[in-house]
Amino acid sequence: MAGPLAGIVVIDFGQYIAGPLAAMLMADYGADVVRIDPPAGPAWDTPANATWNRGKQRIALDLKADADRATALSLIRSADVVVEGFRPGVMDRLGLGAAAMTAADERLVYCSIPGFASDDPRAGLPGWEGVIGAATATYRRPMTGESDGPSYTAIQIASHFAAIQSALAIVMALIARERTGRGQRIEMPLFDATFAAIGAHGLLIDHAPAGGRPDDFWGGLYQCGDGRWVFYSGSTPRFRQRFVEATGNDSWLAEGLNDIPRLTREPALAAQTRARLRALFASRPAAEWEAVGGSCGVPITVCRSAAEWIETPHARVAGIVRKMDDPRYGPMWQPGRAVRLSGMADASLRPASLPDGDRASVLARAAAGRSAAPSLVSNGQAAQASSLTQALAGLRVLDLSMVLAGPTAGRTLGEYGASVIKINNPHEQGAGYRTSVHRYHTDTNRAKETILLDLKTPDGMDVFWRLARQADVVLQNFRKGVPERMGIGYEHLRAVRPDVISVSISAFGHDGPWGAWPGYEPNGQVTTGLHVRFGGDGQPLMQPFAVNDYGTGLLGAYSAALALFHRARTGQGQRPEAALAFTGTFLQSAYLQQYAGKVWDEPRGRDARGSGPLHRMFRAQDDWLFLGAKSSQRAALAAVPGLEGCADLDGPALEAFLLERITARPADAWVTDLTAAGVGVHRVLTSLPDIMRDAWVADHGLSVTRPHDTGEVITTVGPGARLSLTPMAPGRPAATPGMDAASVLAQAGLPDALDQLCASGAVLVEPPPARTATLGAVGH
Question: What is the DSSP string of 151-210?
């Protein structure tokens, strides 16, 4: 197929990262995207534009000039989708705003991606990436390291998460349009988008922080014999067993080093275990350890730089990076598609045009108007337009996935209205599962029903197939080949449901030499360069949030949405795929381009404070703040009391000047004066619990506090995208695993079989765990 979005016309007014990247996510899947650049070219002149603007037609227009604005209006009238990233009100003042454009064309989907929402008190504040990071506690002090202040990450978390969620919301709106004939307005602010990355880090139980990671006494970063680092995950008994067998250390199990409850009780034994592992890893070079992990099916991955990742055979063979002939930079390796669709050829990516390089054809398009008249809304659609509450209402999803990425994809589909059934293995319900129930289950399994179903039993498989025949989407994150061995692979599913969409989420993608390797969030980060980028020349360091897992979950939902849209138009199902390595590559889209003369000079290391003197953190008299300004605003800065004399400074001289002057006054005083000057600025917030308790955040639905069946009051992040016709909803609170067995069995046509299935061991129902003072404090 040419792509699920073939025939969809998108007009891209976005600047910097989020808007162009959201439009790229549509162009990569067949949409006909017209990119509107300012007369001087993109607002950020960066090689990354070769990635963000690939597959688009490009024209330069001055939206302040009447003739060019009229051209822009004609292009919008020819479009299905508009993407823009200005501050709230800017497009309205140009006569191109969402209200006017959607009123003129009820089929138009209009997506705005501002820094702060239109009803946020900070709506007028320039929402630079660093300003959003400061407002969302992204720049916290690292857990380890030399840094004496907040650490800046060069990964633009807010922009990338806003791009993914914008593209996802647009496709969901197109699905709704197929059902109702009507488009709608979408707002996806960068501030709101970041909450999807915060995820379980923002978890509160009875209003107290509870977002720490459960301990992995075996896993973590280890320095190897050649001085390089690997990340090993020993989080499951299976991985620990394989590891000791592969290294000839079977006796460790007899000594109790695999007894996690015992290690929890005996710190001395836990320290001994860690010391043995450090000594073992120091005995071989890192590449050998990665080969050991690959051969025995244990997650062990080398900490690479992004430049090294591009060179790996897996990244290239699997299409995670793609070579393009860019008209400006020549042959260039850059990120490939963020998700895979089974029916779509991967060779169809087109390099970016030069700015204004398609002017004649775009002007001809504007003059011609819409290529085809919009289809008339049928009576059935008109009736559904008034009754459809969510884009996926009436669709069913089976979620067999585990941990964070897969369940996040399922939760997201539930937030868009799908009926989601979460199937867990009852044999995972031991003490180890209970200790992580809130971090992993409560965060990602709201908006779902839950059943504990043993798929290794005949009765369990009978229940599964009864549910699968009704399912529109089946979601799993098993290793390559496992679903087929279980008899629930894509071909098995389509035999009973020909139009089924079977979403697969993996660590490294199923193609390429690492296709069968297991891995978790840290393995995806270290392999693709995210760890090394944040750690710099010292010990590699995890990014501030679980960006790889949550990003992969959102992209998994995006792949399902693309497939559902394609099915709505063709009746065909397929097998989409997302992967941690795809996402880790995508999140570095601002830097991950390799070409002749490339210099890898982006900010890195835990002592980084920003990307330049006008985009960095500064220590004020009492606290840290983030300054975000354009070079053209130096005169405005010089008009602020205390900053006189900086208008003619640049580079290190300007940075030294600001470092000295900003320490002289309190942070709030600077925020007040710089905001009045029209400059982006925000105090650097470092407390996620305080953000989650913020009244505006709660009223906005970004923080959701509800009682759960454990007896606790639990706060989780809420959905961020706002759709005017089919809004997202947080869905019901996550129930204790297995508590919806009776309801799920009734949907499977077995309303009276619960007792029998429990007796056979196919289904497990346990009461909610007793409320304890420590249940929510794991990992502190």
Answer: PP-SS-HHHHHHHHHHHHHHHHHHHHHHHHS---EEE--HHHHHHHHHGGGG-EETTEE-
Distance between CA 259 and CA 551 in Å, rounded?
33
Mean pLDDT of 419-427: 92
Residue 484 neighbours by CB distance under 10 Å: 13
pLDDT greater at residue 772 or residue 572: 572
Angle between helices 157-180 and 18-27 (to 10 degrees): 50
Over residues 39-57, mean pLDDT: 96
Give me the pLDDT at residue 373, please: 42
**Residue 685 and residue 134 in contact, taking contact as beta carbons nearer than 8 Å:** yes
**CA–CA dist 417, 579 (Å, integer):** 24
Contact 5, 28 (CB under 8 A): no
Task: Measure CA 231 to chain center.
Answer: 22
The residues that bridge with 612 in the sheet, in sequence order, are 615
Which range, of 134-138, 426-430, 593-597, 721-725, averages the lowest pLDDT? 426-430
Contacts for 689-697 with beta carbons within 8 Å, 24 or more apart?
689/202, 689/204, 689/208, 689/209, 691/136, 691/137, 691/202, 692/202, 692/204, 692/717, 693/204, 693/207, 696/120, 696/121
Residues 6+ apart with CB under 8 A from 570: none
Query: Residue 596 — left, alpha, or beta (φ > 0 → left; ψ -120 to 50 → alpha)?
Result: beta
* Gap between the Cα atoms of 261 and 480, Å rounded: 31
**Cα 300 to Cα 526: distance, rounded to the nearest angstrom:** 10
Helical residues (DSSP H) of 233-339, grouped into ranges: 237-247, 251-254, 260-265, 267-281, 286-296, 306-311, 313-317
Name 160's Cβ contacts closer than 8 Å, sequence gap at least 6: 17, 18, 21, 551, 586, 587, 589
Backbone angles phi and psi of 112, in degrees to 5: -105, 135
pLDDT at residue 269, as a whole number: 86
C-alpha–C-alpha distance, residues 750 and 741, integer Å: 10
| Better-scored residue on pLDDT, 329 or 383 | 329
Question: Considering only 280-294, 333-347, 376-390, which range has the smallest mean pLDDT?
Answer: 376-390
Average pLDDT, the chain: 91
Question: For the chain, what percentages of helix, strand and coil (3-state, to nearest 5) are there?
Answer: 40, 15, 45
Higher-confidence residue: 213 or 757? 757
Segment (H or E) for 571: none
CA angle 272, 273, 278 (to 5 degrees): 95
Cα radius of gyration (the chain): 26
Integer angstrom CA distances of residue 772 from 131, 205, 261, 435, 776: 39, 11, 17, 11, 8
Distance (Å, rounded) from C-alpha 566 to C-alpha 568?
5
Instruction: Return d(Cα 734, Cα 530) in angstroms, integer.
Output: 31
pLDDT value, residue 535? 86
